[in-house]
Amino acid sequence: MLRLSLKRKFAKIWPSQQKDRKIVLLYHSLEESPWALSKNKFIEHMKWIFDHCLVLPLADLIHAKPIADIQVALTFDDGYSSLHRYVLPILEDKKMVATVYINTGWMGETVNDRKLSNAQRGHYPNDSFLVWPEVQDLYNSGWEVGSHGVNHHDFTSISYDLIKEELRSSKYHIEKYLSTNCEHFAYPFGRHSKTAKKILEQCGYKYAAGAKHGALSASSNLLAFPRINIASDCSFDDFKNIIKGKWDYLGWVHKMRGL
Length: 259
Ligand SMILES: [Zn+2]
What we know:
The protein is α/β, with parallel strands linked by helices and 259 residues long. 37% of the residues lie in helices and 13% in strands. Strands 1, 2, 3, 4, 5 and 8 form a 6-stranded parallel sheet that branches. A two-stranded parallel ribbon has the order 6-7.
């Protein structure tokens, strides 16, 4: 992992790419976990991209033609409760929507059944998850609800049968609760394999998000497309540089790490 100071040094020399740029941002949660982004930083981000970019629903962005402005879609992994409490009203204020990829095994039935995160499973520590009525609220507000599996497994380290079960069961529950098609998936830890992609297709998913830093291009694989993680330690200047492509060198680092 590159240190923040080193990332900033590389960003100084890496060129920006502000035309024909389509990017998918990856967030997790606000406020609760020590790893979470602060609410104020998130508001600052949303205000800036609202003013400087075109924000689209994910599937629209994937199929959009490149234009002079930077086009952005917002995604949130795991399904933390702060999405309903903070993110939904902030985005509604700007008439923006996002995609949430949920771990269906961790969504409670009611607020009395809210589940706490488990850092050993790779969740953000000391956080809590959405419950199904809140997932329904997000969906009713125009959000896309995709699967992040049932139980946050690394798909490169589990069996063929367990990958299949994770993909089928999570899709089934999302479709049952929301009465809609679930075509979107995000790989836990961004880790994917040829086998996982094959099973995804068999299960009826159309789009799967990875975690390799970079912009979408005509040659992007829709079953493992790149996303740009926005970490809580990035400054507002870092954020603007990330959006403009000055951190895109990270894609090479991630490629070496097999993402
Ligand atoms: Zn995750």
